[in-house]
Amino acid sequence: MVKSWATSADGNRSDPPRNAGLRAALGVDLHLEPAGHGVRRGLTDALREAVRGGRLAPGTRLPSSRTLSADLGIARNTVADAYADLVAEGWLTARQGSGTRVAERAAEPAAEPRRRRPRERHRPAYDLIPGTPDLASFPRAEWLRAARRALAHAPHEALGYGDPRGRVELRTALAGYLSRARGVHADPDRVLICSGFLHGLMLIATVLRERGVRSLAVESYGLDVHWDVLERAGLRGVPLPFDERGTRTEELDAGAAGQRPDTGLSGVGAVLLTPAHQFPMGVPLRPGRRSAVVDWARRTGGLIVEDDYDGEFRYDRQPVGALQGLGPDQVVYIGTASKSLAPGLRLGWMVLPPSLVPEAVAAKGRADWSCGVLDQLTLAEFLTSGAYDRHVRAVRLRYRRRRDALVEALAARAPEVHATGIAAGLHAVLELPSGTEQSVVRAAAWRGLAVHGLTRFRHPDSVAAHRDALVVGYGTPPDSAWSGVLDALCQALP
Amino acid sequence: MVKSWATSADGNRSDPPRNAGLRAALGVDLHLEPAGHGVRRGLTDALREAVRGGRLAPGTRLPSSRTLSADLGIARNTVADAYADLVAEGWLTARQGSGTRVAERAAEPAAEPRRRRPRERHRPAYDLIPGTPDLASFPRAEWLRAARRALAHAPHEALGYGDPRGRVELRTALAGYLSRARGVHADPDRVLICSGFLHGLMLIATVLRERGVRSLAVESYGLDVHWDVLERAGLRGVPLPFDERGTRTEELDAGAAGQRPDTGLSGVGAVLLTPAHQFPMGVPLRPGRRSAVVDWARRTGGLIVEDDYDGEFRYDRQPVGALQGLGPDQVVYIGTASKSLAPGLRLGWMVLPPSLVPEAVAAKGRADWSCGVLDQLTLAEFLTSGAYDRHVRAVRLRYRRRRDALVEALAARAPEVHATGIAAGLHAVLELPSGTEQSVVRAAAWRGLAVHGLTRFRHPDSVAAHRDALVVGYGTPPDSAWSGVLDALCQALP
Chain A residue with minimal CA distance to B134? Predict the structure, then answer.
């Protein structure tokens, strides 16, 4: 058994605290396991072994001889001698001003970690897959300013484990914002912070399953990752029919009344919808169908899960507030910062019907699935200072210009291709002649564009008529590339 | 059905983009649902309803009449008139320089959200429950500086959905740090970022369950939240015996050999340990027992989960590196920033045996359980710049002073109470005369101290002899209060 030592900041009890504090401030921690050949040789061997084996990476700065000697409780000269030996052997380098470091290429080749470098063939030059906003427009400087203000005012207890619902500052700011900007009936006690839509959906699916719900209506078009989450939670997804005017929520009633038991809708206890901007088809849920689904939920005790994934981005004057405003006791509203700021923040929010709050909070708390408080506090400050509104309005203009350029390019160069779903959001649907979808996707890939056909978003059990179309996300490519992307896209179209 | 409008930043296409950008920058979003009584009255009614119903909270700033008129595509005077009407009615206030706002107490009493104010009786003045560090020493200014540097250098793609393992910058920085400071064999490909120990434990429990493992050995003393997580994942926790020298890992072999099938240890496929500093008893796992558990894992294919919850905080020279260094293919190492920085960051890390990487990454990715990238990038910068070492060494000195003061106070004023487990960590165990634990906990509570007895940390199935003791966390109270806390604690002791 190797005898082992570790370093610590406080090796020498007789040091006055001031010196100890200074040393602590200057030092770095180093764990060593010297073998027992006398102090100097043991230290030298242990250091050499740590370097040789790759545990201390090339370039790693070692503690000063003063620090390490104090940590280990041995003479400073002994440490200095050991360092000098290893410099002489080529394991370490010593340079005035940068201290003693592990030499570059000191590790033996076999010990170097092998990095897999995945060879990506045909990596597309531009990404038109919907779902990611323009990451270059994340307001870094504004965000840092908000972080500074938020941290300056946060109480110490904000940095602790905290409330599973999320920080009260953020829940309060969101309740105000969602109420004002999206017509949501919200109060901070019913807001639950989550790390994105999928997290929120998982929590709701868990609660529904615990309540005995076994199936849930979904839209004919959507994202398979959502359907997968529901399935893993034990909920069967039953697609609602879809027509030219959108999702036929009135079929829930037909299902509930048992008129068409063959649709599978008669037993559903909940429905997942994208009412403001159907994903990916782009139509808003019509007023009559909004009422129909809320009425269904009221009458049957069903739950509506509203995915307001791009509610901030609307380009025409036709208003589409949150469905939740029509039925705050029937709707779980879920929104995120993933489109409006950046997915990397991993911040989302749910507004829950009062009756669902205890179960959803318990499900979240049980899983210790909390979001970092610093980003929560920063987003709260970002919202209350007005920076969020300013940012959303600025990027909305940028996206609208991209959309306008897309529509104009199509009109000029591919007039037979009709763009729909363009009144809002970060993507458009380009309707294609029947039977051409796959060849257009391939032609686009050949021109360096990653783009999905509509088929990929169609629920496998959907009875909706098959349509050929492209789903074109315009959030991701940089502004400077957009006209080139449009050229390539138009060339790929039939 | 109410006809509804929404505002948007781009109402007037004929505006030159520069003006539109300016308006966008100054504006806020407001969702309105005016009823159809002519433009001015419709707008006035909708605004009044939004204020009356509480949707627009007192103090909310409304868009300027210029912004709202552009958004709605109506004359600016119409908006100004509607605002003036509502100011006259008392719903809004207008003040030079602060714009138009919702009047304080404008909402009708019935519409005000009722906030529950939980009455907390006997809320203790000081918290000695272990688990939370001194939140006042979180290095706010240093952290913000690191965040600024990190964001300045982050590529745009860092802000996207990203790798379920976590950001490569952080995985690389942690591999270097853990290798240097904790003796862990790490390379970035085997590091998985998680949001805390419990998250890491859940992921491992999920993987173990999928591999067919049904039971797992735990220590006789530990945290019930950990046991609960295992149980919810479908794993039965079987306590290992505990003696004066710590957890008897050699019993795993006895169990594996079928010598004592009555212990329940014969079938376990994994073991959860706190080798550096048993929680809460405070003893390190002895060298022979470290070897024994690694040998058991090698021979049986079992997995060791190492909870290195306070590995950074060691006050004596006896080194206790990570157990993982003895068996990188057998041990899942889990550490967090919760003790060294703050739990609110929700950042932890796992170093996985190579064979476990694909399954653990899949389990994490499936759940979309990612941590915010900004904190990840900041922690990476914090580690590589040396700020993490400086911080750990500085707080280690503070904690050591608290510990020394605790030991001195006990020696002077309660000499019959022996403190153990004090060589490391943020808590100590005070051994009490038999039968006094509950009365001491009550006496401490009476003096304003929240403190737990050892009984609460004992596994319900443990066969360890019952001991009376207090588990005293010294991380939480502020420095200034510490001597007063010690006074109260000594008075509560027998």
Answer: A156
